């Protein structure tokens, strides 16, 4: 998380501020409220996926809230960062890759690919997901 914070918030020509639970959430506010506000007021919601995290209630709630924003406001904020090969048999992941494959980013398998990975992640976080939609499906999901 520290590396992610530094790479997105401090490096590159454009600084991309993050909303991090341990740093930015006010103490004493219920988790649901903090999570709802974070997703509601953020341009993107970056899910850093590990085997352990995808099994938690927090992940399921956050994913539900991000999908609610897509359904209610037609705003797609979801970006998946696959740190580990998780959800490989998930219908959701297959649909996500078809609809907006660029919003699913995998951690590089070699150190040589890390520079490209960070550049790609910064680009995905900056660009509106609907611009990256697969053209076959975009007419169903984009604002008219």
Taking the alpha carbons of the first and last residues, their distance comes to 37 Å
Give the integer mean of the pLDDT values: 89
Question: What sort of overall outline do the alpha carbons produce when their principal axes are compared?
Answer: globular
DSSP strand count:
3
The helix/strand order is HHHEHEHEHH
Helical residue percent band: 40-55%
Low-confidence stretches: none
Total DSSP helices = 7
β-strand amount: 5-15%
Describe the protein in words.
By secondary structure, the chain is mainly α. The protein has helices at residues 2-10, 21-24, 31-40, 57-73, 91-100, 114-126, 135-141, and strands spanning 45-49, 78-82, 104-106. Strands 1-2-3 form a 3-stranded parallel beta sheet, sandwiched between helices. It is globular.
Short summary of the structure?
By secondary structure, the chain is mostly helical. Helices cover 49% and strands 9% of the residues.
Write the layout of secondary structure elements.
Blueprint: H1 2-10, H2 21-24, H3 31-40, E1 45-49, H4 57-73, E2 78-82, H5 91-100, E3 104-106, H6 114-126, H7 135-141
Parallel strand pairs: 1-2, 2-3
Helix pairs in contact: 3-4
Keywords: Glycoprotein, Membrane, Receptor, Signal, Transmembrane, Transmembrane helix
Main location: membrane
GO molecular function, one term: pattern recognition receptor activity
